[in-house]
Design goal:
Layout (H helix, E strand, L loop, with lengths): L10 H32 L5 E5 L3 E5 L4 E6 L6 E2 L4 E6 L3 H69 L8 H35 L9 H17 L2 E4 L4 E6 L6 E2 L4 E6 L5 E7 L11 E6 L6 E9 L4 E2 L2 H4 L8 E8 L11 E7 L4
Antiparallel strand pairs: 1-10, 1-15, 2-9, 3-5, 3-8, 4-7, 5-6, 7-9, 10-14, 11-12, 11-15, 12-14, 13-14
Helix pairs in contact: 2-3, 2-4
């Protein structure tokens, strides 16, 4: 009996058998592989959550005053030390009141200086008259001294003649005493006149510039006021970007008010929180595997820099999008992994890689 040729199986039947027996197996393998890939690349356990440290700096007012102008706008980059605006140190109303007060003080100062100058002039005139009086008395003493010296010489000759002594010892002693007293008087008056002239010279104004002392005092007061109300230059404390402008030109300031907020576009640290339960407290010898929360996760290894001493509250937004979960964790400072681009304020997930102990 001749064998019959096999009956050909239709393509539809073969596709049906493939879909029923083979395709589910392939789909299962592909699904498992996809889950493993997604878990490794896009999902990670959240035992340690962290936030890339955002560095901010505040430009505040140093005194009550007013914002005069700002040379930057929001989201503009600035350099450290760059002038970004000016602020007045004094409120306009207070400035007007201070000006009026200074003007009144200057008027009082002018009146006092006029009185002092009049008193000084009177003192100088009195010293001048005293000097003239002493010079007159000195001139009289010199004339009397000359006469007394002549009388003493005449009495001395009469007293010293051995043959015919016409003057007594008493007359000789009186003439000598009168001459010596007048000589001493002249010496004392000479010293007194010199002292009085020195005193006159010290009290006499000696302004080589020729300027009025009252004008000099007023100029000094004006300079003091200018320095007191001189506008303050606002300078950027860090390299960064202007993220917030709290005060606009024309607004009044109270000491300590925030004018600008600057944020640095770069950072080199991550602040992580080890959630409970904590089995092993990491040390600076351990490392941390950092995973970003981007759609395509990037992974890097970072070094632990510091470990906190106690548990602190964790930012609820790190734990859940609704921000309603409240937990505490152990803070850990971590370096940014090399070659991993992270933005300040970005949230990341981490796992500890313990070193061999």
């Amino acid at each position: 009996m001749e064998s019959l040729p096999p009956i050909p199986t239709p393509a539809g039947q073969r596709w049906r058998e493939f879909r029923i027996r083979i395709l589910p197996m392939f789909m299962f393998v592909f699904a498992v592989a996809g889950l493993v890939y997604i878990w490794n690349g896009y999902v990670a356990p959240s035992g340690i959550v962290g936030e890339v440290e955002a560095l901010t700096a505040l430009v505040t007012s140093v005194a009550d005053g007013q914002v005069l102008d700002l040379t930057v706008d929001r989201y503009e980059p600035v350099k450290k030390g760059e002038t970004i605006g000016t602020a007045a140190r004094m409120d306009p109303e207070l400035m007007a009141a201070t000006l009026a007060s200074i003007e009144a003080d200057l008027q009082v100062l002018r009146a006092r200086m006029m009185v002092d100058m009049a008193q000084s002039d009177q003192s100088l005139q009195k010293i001048k008259l005293d000097i003239l009086s002493q010079r007159v008395l000195q001139a009289g003493a010199k004339a009397n001294f000359q006469q007394a010296s002549n009388d003493f010489e005449r009495v001395s000759r009469l007293y010293n003649e051995p043959a015919n002594r016409l003057a007594t010892a008493t007359e000789y002693d009186l003439a000598k005493a009168r001459r010596d007293s007048l000589r001493d008087e002249i010496e004392e008056r000479t010293k007194l006149i010199k002292d009085m002239e020195d005193s006159f010279t010290s009290l006499k104004p000696n302004d080589s510039s020729g300027k009025d002392p009252i004008s000099l005092a007023i100029a000094a007061k004006e300079e003091e006021f200018k320095l007191a109300v001189k506008p303050v230059e606002l300078k950027a404390p860090i390299d960064g970007i202007v993220t917030l402008i709290s005060k606009r030109p024309g607004e009044r300031l109270i000491k300590g008010d925030i004018i600008l907020t600057l944020s640095s576009p770069r950072t080199d640290r991550i602040i992580g929180y080890l959630r409970q339960p904590i089995n092993d407290v990491p040390t600076t010898n351990d490392t941390m595997i950092v995973r970003s929360r981007a759609f395509k996760r990037t992974v890097g290894t970072a070094q632990i820099l510091k470990v906190g001493a106690q548990l602190v509250p964790i930012n609820p937004l790190l734990l859940a999008p609704d921000g309603k979960r409240m937990e505490v964790g152990l803070p850990i400072m971590i370096s940014v992994p090399s070659g991993m681009r992270l933005s300040p304020g970005e949230y990341v997930d981490m796992t500890v890689k313990l070193a061999k102990r």
